[in-house]
Design a protein that fits this description.
This protein is an all-alpha fold. 76% of the residues lie in helices and 0% in strands. The protein has 12 helices and no strands. The longest helix is centred in the last third of the chain and has 27 residues, at 258-284. The radius of gyration is 20 Å and the shape is globular. The termini are far apart.
């Protein structure tokens, strides 16, 4: 085993730890690790990451399942739609230029990091199966799945908010259910890539085993580290990784352009300002009045 392969396997433990702790984020680490440490081509790295994250998510869901934090009907509906999108995304990704895929992946990293730093909207709802907006769940499942299959990213940190908002699931149940969805989408995206991309199965198996070990460690650490602190710290780390990936893949003229980076900083600042304004408006807007109760009404 070469030094690069050994380092890849050791660092792969962090992929599993992230999945076990946060219910997502594994692919954000897996693709850069496989490209810049293991030295895999971009498409092979994306396909391998889908395998690693799929198997690791399937294992990481076990403690959530034992604790009753998996809503099967919602997860299977969302996951089935996501599999369709992921398979189509995998087919398309296998035919696109590698640089385009890695630049798209870096942009997805930055978007994911923003979601992590911003935080998830909490919900205390308990949707029943008849309450589920099936059409919205199917549509969002296909879109999120297509993103996952195309660039090998956008798993948990897109799925968890969707499950919480569309399915009305409490956050712990949304995290547990998201692991089922991530596993389904990852395997479907992998199937799309395998039609044209070859995988180093020995390396993939070693990285997957290390990530599974990390997921068990992450499951034990969950609850011992403040979730907000962990999420924001990891989010800023993903920002650094996303900028690094863009610097590696974009043409030198673009990387050294002050106007480009000034535009990115300005766009980010405006987006953050808009989000803060909307958050303050939501916080100060009173809830709608409850409908009047009919006197003497009986059931």
């Amino acid at each position: 085993m070469s030094a690069g392969t050994a380092l890849t396997v050791i660092l792969a433990v962090g992929i599993g730890v992230t999945l076990g702790l946060l219910g997502g984020g594994g692919s954000i680490l897996a693709v850069p690790l496989l490209v810049y440490v293991a030295g895999l081509p971009g498409k092979e790295a994306i396909a391998t990451s889908l395998l690693v994250v799929g198997v690791t998510s399937a294992v990481a869901v076990i403690p959530h399942l034992r604790a009753g934090r998996v809503r099967w009907r919602t997860g299977l509906i969302f996951g089935a739609a996501g599999m369709v999108g992921a398979y189509l995304g995998g087919l398309a990704g296998a035919k696109l230029p590698e640089k385009l895929l890695l630049v798209a992946f870096a942009l997805m990293m930055l978007a994911t990091a923003g979601a992590m730093i911003r935080g998830r909207r909490n919900t205390t709802g308990n949707a029943t199966p008849t309450d589920l907006p099936i059409r919205r769940i199917l549509l969002d499942g296909v879109v999120v799945g297509a993103v996952t299959g195309l660039v090998g990213a956008g798993g948990g940190f897109l799925v968890v908010p969707a499950l919480a908002l569309l399915g009305g699931l409490p956050m712990p149940i949304a995290v547990g259910t998201s692991l089922v969805v991530i596993a389904m989408k990852s395997f479907a995206g992998l199937a799309g890539y395998l039609s044209t991309v070859q995988i180093n199965w020995a390396l993939a198996a070693a990285v997957t085993a290390a990530a599974v070990l990390g997921s068990l460690i992450g499951g034990r650490l969950a609850g011992r580290i403040p979730e907000t602190t962990l999420r924001k710290t990891f989010g800023w780390f993903v920002v650094v990784m996303g900028v690094f990936t863009l610097a590696q893949e974009l043409p030198t003229a673009m990387v050294t352009s002050l106007w480009l980076w000034a535009g990115l900083l300005l766009t980010t600042a405006v987006a953050l300002a808009v989000h803060r304004h909307r958050s303050r408006r939501r916080a100060t807007t009173p809830p709608p009045p409850s409908p009047p109760t009919r006197v003497g009404a009986t059931r």
